[in-house]
Amino acid sequence: MENKSIAKARDLIRRRRFDQARKLLQPLALNDPAAQELLQQLNIIAPPGSQARGRGCLGALFSGGAVTIGAVLSLCLLCVACVGVIALGAQQQQDAAEEANDGRGSFENPVPAGRRVVFDGLEVQVLGLRRPATTLVKSFNIINADPPAGSEFVLVRLALYCTAETGVCAGNSVNTALVGADETRYEREGGGLIVINEDIAEVRLGPGASAEGWKYFVVPRNARLRTLRLEVGVVTLHSALPAANAGTLAVSGAGAGTLSNPARAGTPMEFPDFNITVREVQRPANSTVQGWSDLNDPPPAGSDYVLVRLEVFCKRPGAELCRGNEITTRLIDGAGNEWGRQGIGITFLPAEQDFNRLDAVGGATFSGWEYFVFPQGQSLGGIRLSAGGETRYGLAN
């Protein structure tokens, strides 16, 4: 009678649970020739680390009894047939996807920039392109290193729309690469450990839901980019790229607070624990800042102080506090670069006006100034507010 564990492994193979079967067989194969033989056959069907998922033709070999040498030879012939069937199925899915995108999606004929790229159960929209984005990427986290010499970080803003009727649409199911005019692919090689805000790969959506987020890439500075390559399962589609840094702070309608649709000054931006509103902007604010204290240094040459008054309504329950120092702020210029307090020495704000030192209990409001160092002559686009792992964007003019 066949060993129960081997019989269980054979059943797992029939049900195409190859990894489970392999884990069960590996210790048995040390001393059991039957387990060794079955493991060898399994490794032919589904090599370790592969994504093989047998459909009827492979499972038929394990319908019962021991697998003979003749069966293995038959397996080789069936594998050829299976590969052909799988390839045909993949091509059919690819053709159907391009048809759903009006015949577009190839590298030579990409889906137009800004139009949703349609996959089965998921749609992807390219909202914007930040290049260079090295300053922005490094501002996301103190551990983020510089890109390799001669390269730069590029950020692509994506929106995902879950059109599936059931299940979950995962951001990490979409594999991406920027593609140059010479068809060279650029991914994340050489970027080291990089942490980004609003990482689209971390998104999990239910049916009908949508979300925005970033994808980052490491690209040679002189590379000419043509498309964004999107791969979901066996289907690959290309989207044309928008102009770099174009329209990143243009208001487009209701539901403001995203990068593609920032909130106007005076419009509250909602976070789980508070609402934040941009109330006032002073530019330049050099005399105001230096008038607060004799200790305050002037801004670096070619720069000005900019003051932004922020108002926070605390939505936490009871006496639980909302604090200004929970919120990270950055100004954004017209080219998409972000600016904080770079290059300054001592800058003192009165306690009653320093946004970072103010707080309020649930149901109450506080308002204070946040200061920045911003290049003279550069257009002021907006402000980025981050708190509790979420980010909102507002206009600052």
Computed Rg: 28 Å
Poorly predicted runs are 51-67, 247-255
How would you state the average pLDDT, rounded?
81
Approximate strand percentage: 25-35%
H/E topology pattern: HHHHHEEHEEEEEEEEEEHEEEEEEEE
> What is the percent of helical residues?
10-25%
Task: Give the count of structural domains.
Answer: 3
Question: Between the first and last Cα atoms, what is the distance in angstroms?
Answer: 81 Å
- How many beta-strand segments? 20
Number of DSSP helices?
7
What is the 3D shape? elongated
Q: Which CATH architecture of the largest domain is right?
A: Sandwich
Tell me, what is the CATH class of the largest domain?
Mainly Beta
Q: What is the spatial order of strands in the main beta sheet?
A: 1-2-3-8
Give an overview of the whole structure.
With 397 residues, the chain is α+β, with helices and mostly antiparallel strands. The chain has three domains: 75 residues, no CATH class; 124 residues, Sandwich (Immunoglobulin-like), CATH 2.60.40; 127 residues, Immunoglobulin-like (Sandwich), CATH 2.60.40. It is built from seven helices and 20 strands.
Describe what is shown at a glance.
The chain is an alpha+beta fold and 397 residues long. The protein has three domains: 4-78, no CATH class; 117-240, Immunoglobulin-like; 269-395, Immunoglobulin-like (Sandwich), CATH 2.60.40.
